[in-house]
């Protein structure tokens, strides 16, 4: 299928049904069979992956069988008369076999090693020993044939299973399977969930505003060409996107007078996605897409987007699919009115009294990503400049009122948390979730008078770019300009985008890049890859240094989550380190703040138990009879928010609401703990007190770790 392709030879990736290898069973010397397998389709379990054929009798039996989450191996040294035939995978209990548990075996590469000696048979999965069968225990049984025999491992897996085999080889048993595991990892194409922006995620579905040209919105994401270890592969191939129906994976049709269903936006011009593939650069391809179809116009069917390598059709591991998509019109978002917690930086008269409050921001800002899946469909940041009565003018008056009235506020700034309903009609009329070009924060009025050397073109490139574009741009400029220029650029971006949340991420760029480079050089010692276990000590040292923390170190569970974020296993490359660093550095910087550091260091109660996933937080709020009592909450750092995402390093509250449903809300501390407020000597309540004054939050929950 790909004999002329520079990155793939005809023999590199073989369909399971075409795989065939011969070997001779030598009981004295033994042998090792290693291969990668990728299962992409199955009809029933159990299914044979590989069968063994005995040359002497021309009979066959299963060798490797997949039964849902169990991989079963029938050793070559088993007497073939006692083993089941290839069509019968219900193994009798008396037939010796080796088993290994595999979670979610479909649509991923699995490395299988099969070692045979005169004493044992071993099964290896992904370089690790998964099971062993001692042949000495079978000496008094009729399972072991006498002498060596010519055996054909022939494969033709059965009709219930379809897949690919990569790098299948037979070696002497003196070689290490671990070396073969890391030698030639296969490729895969994958959507980079951390790069996704302008997509609202609702219970596993993507909600995207589409339709006619005046209404549809751009959403962006990156696709990465990786090896099986999650490391980028640098090949200049082209990736093409196409819109399919989610239920049958068939292309969405286009009539003669209609626009293409999926469009690529390039320099403000729309093209059919099939006409504009995106070229991979350093293993990544970026897409800015629009959908011209609406689910309501297609019998309410859902869509999905397929990404594939041009000219390499049929290689399923070089394809990836988005979750199911509800393509909706601007006036038909599925969100309903709810309470949204947002910042209030003003003194509001309530029943004749004065109260100043911090509210929350909902946990679905502009750059929502799928790692933080299943966010509340109603959770949305209020966009600036939306209301008919300008909210910017309100904020200007409110901000100025603090300076004149703060001495008269007896309880100080942040006396309680206030919840306010949001008008979602207004939210749906701007370009994005948290940004609106051309709206100025009143706190930034002085920016126009402050000079800096970065051009307006660069500023607009940052405002209009996706996360990957912004990261690349910051890496380009942060090492060549001064701290003052970085600060000016941060303020200018906040002015042009109308979103002050960018300021913090831009200002940390120089330190993040410089300290990350130093840390990686110290860890790698000029090596391309390093063992994860040897890197964790330096990672922890850097974390505690940035967080200004001397009393609390990272736990083993924390390191496991960091490894998951890095996308590596036993070995870490620079790309893995940078991915992990862009998440860890903003978190450590947040913890260096006095008001958060105290919560991190607290042991009774333990406000922040460590780095946990959204799923672990939700599991921890589950009681033996369902959810815990309303008001129970847990604090966590969202794993999907990495620098330069505006919310990188923020805290999220996961809690049980009064409706007995789980909710996730992003804490926004910008105004409460800003330098301007501190300079005014306004007394700020501890975050713990403000949390408990929120009616929705009544008791701190505890974490149940996965093991």
UniProtKB/TrEMBL annotation:
The keyword Transcription does not apply. This is SH2 domain protein A, putative isoform 2. Residues 607-707 form the SH2 domain. CDD domains: SH2_SHA (cd10338). One of its GO terms (molecular function) is DNA-binding transcription factor activity. SUPFAM superfamilies: Concanavalin A-like lectins/glucanases, SH2 domain. The keyword 4Fe-4S does not apply. The lineage of its organism: Eukaryota, Viridiplantae, Streptophyta, Embryophyta, Tracheophyta. InterPro entries: ConA-like_dom_sf, SH2, SH2_dom_sf, STAT. Keywords: SH2 domain. One of its GO terms (biological process) is signal transduction. Residues 426-447 have a biased composition (Polar residues). Residues 410-447 are annotated as: Disordered.
